[in-house]
Amino acid sequence: MSHLAFLASHKVNGVSALHTGLMRETVFNDLHNLFPNRIVNVTNGITFRRWLHEANPKLTRLLVDAVGPRVLEHEDALAELRPLADDASFRQRFSAVNYLNKLTLADVIRRELEIRVDPAALFDVQIKRIHEYKRQLLNILETVALYNAIRAQSMNDWTPRVKIFAGKAAASYHQAKLIIKLAHDVARVINSDPTVRNILKVVFLPNYSVSLAEVIIPAADLSEQISTAGMEASGTGNMKLALNGALTIGTLDGANIEILEHVGADNMFIFGLTAQEVAERRALGIDSSAAIAASPVLAEVLDAVRSGVFSPDERDRYRGLIDSLRYHDYFMVCADFDAYYATQRAIATRWNRPDEWWRSSILNTAGVGWFSSDRAIREYASEIWHVPTYTPP
User: Fold this and answer.
1) Tens digit of pLDDT for each residue in 179-201?
2) How far apart are CA 13 and CA 41, in angstroms?
3) How far apart are CA 372 and CA 75, in angstroms?
4) 341 and 297 in contact (C-beta within 8 Å)?
5) In a domain, 66, yes or no
6) What DSSP line would sit under 91-121, residue for residue?
7) How would you label 130-160 residue by residue, b for 16+ Cβ within 10 Å and e otherwise?
8) CATH number of residue 299's parent domain
């Protein structure tokens, strides 16, 4: 079907620079050689009118106050925020908006799940379709590792964190639904353990929708964009969260690469294998026994999940899931685990330096104006459709 679509199309858009290159080099390589000008790249975008102005009116008012009403129509006006990242009073106002949004989300969590979370904690958010390549499982395993570490060293000065998940799985996608079940089982154990009560909470919000996303995204501190490199075409959640000031932890995949170019390496947390390294690993085999043996933290987590620590009512519930990671780790969960775990510890350190954190947060908002859907549509109009466009005065 994809080849028929290619032949019938005037242009084929890769929607991010990385994915466009992969289409040229792999999926459509033969067709690309026959039609070398057909595959183009127009990185997709998001509508700021929905994901900033409507979803986060408090931040929008602050931005208008800071740089003027032009920011409502011209995405490039966000860049005028950059000097304000070094202004202590503006950082304080920016963080205060975030805190108010977190109060709103905390209230939703309390109403929906009867779980109380501290809005002063780091809100660590992964909201997207549940899929193995998006690696919610990697996030859950790191959560278990953090839980084990807190229990082992409860007197340490741990950074309070709320792990927030939301998303839906395809009706027949058994592995994805098993991952959702694991997230709930891990949440139940952690949230009922008094040892970590004020340090770590895990929530999975039901019935994920645009309306729910409009509450979660303005309240996020950390944006989880951790797909296996080379497998995410672009992503738009990464753009929405960065626009609202969340810092990204992510792989060099999809539009993460272009976000990195616009906001700077100091204001994101990049980890893990590159798309080329993933391909090289797969060529050598996807058995992860050696990686597990080399990582005591990962081995302990996998043993706990496999043995039924989080599923005492059905000890073998996750045996197959863990065995698939050991012998068929196609999505490189085990291969990237140690790098992800170490990066999460660096994030906790940065969170405890609020001036640095909020400076980076402001620079994320200031740097992502390019990801507006207005820019994407203008590029479509000029490079693909060849039609005139309207530019607001």
Assistant:
1) 999 999 999 999 999 999 889 99
2) 5
3) 7
4) yes
5) no
6) HHHHHHHHHHHHHHHHHHHHHHH-----TTS
7) bbbebbbbbbbbbbbbbbebbeeeeeeebbb
8) 3.40.50.2000
Across all residues in the chain, what is the average pLDDT? 97
pLDDT at residue number 390? 75
* pLDDT tens string 243-289: 999 999 999 999 999 999 999 999 999 999 999 999 999 999 999 99
308 CB contacts (<8 Å, ≥6 apart)?
A: 314, 315, 316, 317, 318
The percent of residues above 90 in pLDDT, for the chain, comes to 97
Q: Are 266 and 357 in contact (CB under 8 A)?
A: no
Among 282, 227, 222, residue whose Cα is nearest residue 254: 227
33: three-class secondary structure by DSSP: helix
Q: Which two tokens stand for residue 168?
A: 């839906």
| DSSP three-state, residue 163 | strand
In a domain, 60, yes or no: no
Which pLDDT score, from 0 to 100, does residue 226 have? 98
**pLDDT confidence of residue 389:** 80
Number of domains, the chain: 2
What gap in Å lies between CA 11 and CA 233, rounded to an integer?
A: 17
H helix intervals, the chain: 2-8, 17-22, 29-34, 48, 57-67, 88-113, 136-152, 174-191, 210-216, 237-243, 256-263, 275-284, 289-293, 296-307, 319-327, 333-351, 354-367, 373-380
* Domain range for 15: 2-41
Q: Average the pLDDT over 53-60 and give the result.
A: 98
